[in-house]
Amino acid sequence: MTMNGEILPAPEEKTQAVRSMFDAIAPRYEFVNRMMTFGLDSRWRKKTVVSLGLPQGSLIIDLACGTGDLSRTASEQGLQPIGADLSFGMLAASHGTGPLFQGDASQLPVRSASVDGLVCGYALRNFTDLNAAFSEMARVLRPGGRLALLEVGAPQGALIKRGYSVWFDHMVPIIGGFLSDKKAYRYLPASTVYLPSGEEIRERLIARGFSGVNHHQLSGGLSQLFTATRSGS
Fold it and tell me: In terms of CB atoms within 10 Å, which end of the chain has fewer, N or C?
């Protein structure tokens, strides 16, 4: 069973469909990302890691780590990353640093209050249960720990919004299908329907124990970044 013209999986099939899709695109994932964003994704990932504001040596989880871009950036900033991903294919193709483990964002095999920070890049819309994922993020972070979530954006300016739509909604599926997997790169633009508004994400994080939640627009809204601190003492 599928939805949205057979692009999006039905809710009960989403976890398995997402795992299989990312297994399929893992070998060329980094190359296609660089091409799709004209290299801007590297700048956004660095900003994500820096926004944690953690001292060198801090232990962080790179959730939905993919092939390890954020983990490598974290290592360059002196942090100690642990990569986690639902997809075995992504973990097998990882060029990240530090340990790796397979895990579902809604049920992480990680001790409570055991890490200093958590980053996640372009994966919120792929989680089957986003609220459960936010709860797990809060659980594994120590009080005062930092969170940074990078996601696709929604530009507001008329000109950039029109250009973004042409590129992301139409060209990305064509180019991604040519270079990698057609079905996967049709799913990725369509999957933004799973993503709540920035204000709703902020409210959900606050409800699950985060404070100082900020929402940043990057490069005119091409990407967006949420930062927060785990409440408690």
Answer: C
Q: What is the pLDDT of residues 142-201, one digit of tens each?
A: 999 999 999 988 777 666 666 666 566 666 666 666 556 778 778 888 888 899 999 999
**Selection from 153, 176, 151 nearest residue 165 by Cα:** 153
Complete DSSP assignment for 155-224: --SHHHHHHHHIIIIIIHHHHHHHHS-HHHHHHHHHGGGGPPPHHHHHHHHHHTTEEEEEEEEEGGGTEE
CA gap 49, 69 in Å, rounded: 11
Q: Within 10 A of 2 (CB to CB), how many other CB atoms are there?
A: 11
Amino acid at 157: G
Into how many domains does the chain fold? 1
Quote the CA–CA distance of 124 and 48 in Å, as a whole number.
15
Structure tokens at 11: 């809710």
Neighbours of 196 (CB within 10 A): 13
Domain that holds residue 160: 2-230
Nearest CA to 202 out of 187, 194, 192, 212 is that of 212
Q: Tell me phi and psi for residue 98, to 5 degrees.
A: 90, 175
Q: How far is Cα 16 from Cα 200, in angstroms, rounded to an integer?
A: 26
| d(C-alpha 46, C-alpha 49), whole Å | 5
pTM (two decimals): 0.88
**Residue 79 contacts by C-beta under 8 Å, 6 or more apart in sequence?**
49, 52, 54, 56, 57, 58, 59, 60, 117
The total number of residues written for the chain in this structure: 233
